[in-house]
């Protein structure tokens, strides 16, 4: 007698998520499309049209919209939303350290450029 083999593999204790369905993919696509359209509207109609002035407020709005778009891309298209908390935190902490390192190097470079000039024939502007 031949025993039948089940082709599906089940993991005990592992959570199973539904994943991305076509509906979710399209919903996230339209969220990203709306955020991008909002960015273009702010840039072309409001700032270029002279309704609002370029400045810190506009830059903060751009940064917030870009971070929101990055969240949707990472959470849904890179499937990080369905991962465990430990994995999410390990990626987030590493990312924050990289950002901190970049800010630290830019600050140090600006300080050295303004306070140390090894070439006196080429003064800082």
Automatic annotation (TrEMBL):
GO cellular component, one term: plasma membrane
Record membrane topology: Multi-pass membrane protein
Superkingdom, taxonomy of origin: Bacteria
Segments forming a coiled coil: none
Transmembrane segments: 28-47, 59-79, 85-106
UniProt key word Iron: no
Assigned keywords, A-Z: Cell membrane, Membrane, Transmembrane, Transmembrane helix
Compartment(s): Cell membrane
Entry protein name: Cytochrome c oxidase subunit IV
Organism of origin: Parapedobacter composti
């Amino acid at each position: 007698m031949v025993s039948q083999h089940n082709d599906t593999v089940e993991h005990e204790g592992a959570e199973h998520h539904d994943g991305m369905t076509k509906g979710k993919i399209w919903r996230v696509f339209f969220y990203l499309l709306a955020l991008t359209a909002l960015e273009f509207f702010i840039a072309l109609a409001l700032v270029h049209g002279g309704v609002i002035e370029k400045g810190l407020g506009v830059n903060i709005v751009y940064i917030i919209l870009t971070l929101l778009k990055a969240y949707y891309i990472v959470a849904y298209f890179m499937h990080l939303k369905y991962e465990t908390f430990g994995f999410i935190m390990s990626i987030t902490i590493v990312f924050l350290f990289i950002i901190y390192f970049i800010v630290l190097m830019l600050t140090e470079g600006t300080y050295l450029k303004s306070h140390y000039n090894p070439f006196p024939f080429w003064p800082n502007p």
